[in-house]
Amino acid sequence: xxxxxxxxxxxxxxxxxxxxxxxxxxxxxxxxxxxxxxxxxxxxxxxxxxxxxxxxxxxxxxxxxxxxxxxxxxxxxxxxxxxxxxxxxxxxxxxxxxxxxxxxxxxxxxxxxxxxxxxxxxxxxxxxxxxxxxxxxxxxxxxxxxxxxxxxxxxxxxxxxxxxxxxxxxxxxxxxxxxxx
Length: 181
Hints:
With 181 residues, this protein is mostly helical. It is 69% helix and 0% strand. The chain contains nine helices and no strands. The protein starts with a helix and ends with a helix. 29% of the residues are buried.
C-alpha cells in the first residue's frame, strides 16, 4: 500500500542532487530534505504499519532532522563538489559566505551558523522521535537506532565546536553497536 507518488518524490530528490547546487532558503532546502530523506521514512512507515495519522508528520520531521545532520557533517565534501546546501539567506544572516565555505574558512561566524543549524535539527529530532510510540513495538528499533545514530553525530560535531573542515565526523563500529544495543 505504498503510495506511488513517494517513489516519484525520491526520484525528484535525486534529480535535485544532480542539478541543484545551492538553496536560497530553508524552505527550498526542506523540500529537498523531504524528498531524499522524509519520503524514505514515509515508505518505511507503510511497511511498519501505524494507526495514528500524526505518525506521518513525525516521520517527515525525523527524515528532515537526519538529512540536516548529513548536510552539516558533509559541508567540506559538498564544497569540494561545488555544492552548498546551507541556505544562502542564512549564510548572509551570520555574515558568512559561500566563498568562505568553498575555501574551508572556520571561524566564529561559521560556528554560529552551525549552532543555528543544530538547534533546528534538534527541534526536528524532538518532533520526529514522537514517531516511536506510534509504530508497533516490533518496528520501533529501526527509527530509534537511526535517530540515535544521527543525534550522536550531531553531538560529535558539537564536541568539535562544529569544525567539520578538519575531517569527517564519524562513529566507530563500536559506538554504532553500543547505540544499537
